Amino acid sequence: MDIYKINKAAEILYNSRINLKRIKKLPEECVPQSLKEAYDIQDKLVNKYLTVDKSNSLIGKKIGCTNKAAQAQLNINDSFFGNMFSKNISKSKCIINSKNYFSPFVEPEFSFVMKDELDILKAPYKPDVVCESISAVLPSIELVDSRFEDWTVVGVKNLIADNAVHAHWIYGDEINNLNSINFNNHSVDLLINGKLIDKGNSSNVLGNPINSLTWLINNLALYGKSLPKNSYISTGTCTPAIPIQKGDEVIADFGKLGDVSFIYK
User: CA torsion, points 86, 103, 79, 207, in degrees to nearest 10?
Assistant: First the structure.
């Protein structure tokens, strides 16, 4: 795919978000045929966000479909990654304005802060090495919200181009003592309007969220990219993606890690 078609695809996805008008599909000539083309469109889309609003900045990455239930929802078998922006994050106990979204889903996720930037020339890394490069863990909820009318049928390449359907990230307090958390088996309760909707677990995220972070670092290295120091990474949902409606109060209870919540108004 030439640069004109990549730019055209990014422009369509950008305008869809800004104007809050969903699209059924990209024009035939703009549909990514490979993972590289999908990430090339994503990169152009990111550049558009940052160019239009100079006060906006990249703060980290999100990882999608690390969970078998989430993969089944989208009929795909692969994980993928996208980008998180400073203008699309909120501290827990916030209000999220429903006017800015199409029909979002919530995903309770373990997020990490990078202490060190790992040398991509030494990739692939193992989880124990990656663990040493983490400075903190924090409970979080990702809002995912696709530009496509039916994001369950468009396929992984279109989802990647759409910045991995990322919309917003709500975060709780950082915990620096990672040794106090059993990432192989840590329960997460998702409640909406006080009702328990699902009981998730860290084991649903590629067996352990640090495995998910390791996957990201090693896959970024294949594209010649790294995770800068102090980057935030949301590692993938512990439950299936759950739809929310205007007026909902959402709480993800991470036990000893604390909880994270918001009202969708």
Answer: 90
Q: What CATH number corresponds to the domain at position 146?
A: 3.90.850.10
Averaged in consecutive runs of 10 residues, what is the pLDDT profile of the chain (265 residues)?
A: 96 96 96 96 97 96 80 72 97 97 96 96 96 97 95 89 96 95 97 98 96 96 95 96 97 97 98
Residue 99 lies in a domain: yes
Number of domains into which the chain is organized: 1
Instruction: Quote the CA–CA distance of 22 and 86 in Å, as a whole number.
Output: 23
* Residue 27 within a domain: no
Closest to 62 (Cα-Cα) out of 237, 203, 208:
237
For residue 43, being part of any structural domain is answered with no
Nearest to 143 by CA among 110, 205, 101: 101
Q: Determine the structural domain holding residue 227 and report its residue range.
A: 58-264
> Torsions phi, psi of 203, nearest 5?
-65, -20
